[in-house]
């Protein structure tokens, strides 16, 4: 798995310093399991963040601190291998009806995943409960081959980690391992590839707004 779509640097920095809310944090963690490139970037931000904290605490920064930090990042980067974390079962169990080949990310361990409920033809949603943040807007989305995700916009950032299958929208095609970050400006209507279903882990920072009757039907889920 070689992801082609990644979280923004800003998102990875917020992940590294712990300011990303629990929902998006979970989705980014799922991405990091399969992306050595982003794991390296997060470590770099963590190292820089640590140095900044030391500087703010008034501790004298060694003259070679920056060079040593960059050395460490280079060493860790070189030694890093693609090693996805082993998946552990979620406490609520695996929802029934997911594609047999799908391995749920280890990041979901500890989360209770509700049953997948149909909300539109070919579209099923399972609510993901994040420990410590019951209000986090996270869901597992299972969409049938060739089906579209209802036309929607969102108030904040939307994070989508593709777990299985692939979909496309006006910006490109996204497959398993990709993380797609979309801001509230975008009005998009993704469509799943014709050859099989697509399963995504989705988190939103703001409220999701579907249009029309479907918006009313989906309200209890998002
Ligand atoms: Zn990545």
From TrEMBL:
> Any idea where the ChrR-like cupin domain is?
117-203
Gene3D superfamilies per the UniProt record, alphabetical: Anti-sigma factor, zinc-finger domain, Jelly Rolls
Q: Which InterPro entries match?
A: Anti-sigma_ChrR, Anti_sigma_zinc_sf, ChrR-like_cupin_dom, RmlC-like_jellyroll, RmlC_Cupin_sf
NCBIfam families linked: anti_sig_ChrR
Q: What is this protein called?
A: ChrR-like cupin domain-containing protein
């Amino acid at each position: 798995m070689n992801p082609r779509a990644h979280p923004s640097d800003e998102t990875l920095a917020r992940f590294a310093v712990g300011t990303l809310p629990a929902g998006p944090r979970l989705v980014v963690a799922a991405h990091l399991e399969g992306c050595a490139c982003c794991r390296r970037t997060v470590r770099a931000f963590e190292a820089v963040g640590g140095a900044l904290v030391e500087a703010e605490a008034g501790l004298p920064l060694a003259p070679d601190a920056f060079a040593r930090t960059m050395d460490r990042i280079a060493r860790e980067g070189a030694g890093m291998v693609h090693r996805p974390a082993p998946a552990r079962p979620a406490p609520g169990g695996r929802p029934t009806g997911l594609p047999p080949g799908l391995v749920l990310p280890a990041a979901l361990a500890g989360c209770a995943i509700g049953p997948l409920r149909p909300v539109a033809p070919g579209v099923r949603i399972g609510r993901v409960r994040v420990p410590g943040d019951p209000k986090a807007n996270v869901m597992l989305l299972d969409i049938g081959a060739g089906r579209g995700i209802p036309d929607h916009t969102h108030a904040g950032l939307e994070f989508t980690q593709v777990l299985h299958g692939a979909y496309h929208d006006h910006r490109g095609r996204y497959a398993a391992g990709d993380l797609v970050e979309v801001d509230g400006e975008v009005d998009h209507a993704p469509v799943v590839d014709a050859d099989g279903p697509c399963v995504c882990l989705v988190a939103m920072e703001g409220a999701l707004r579907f249009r029309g009757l479907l918006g009313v039907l989906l309200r209890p889920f998002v």
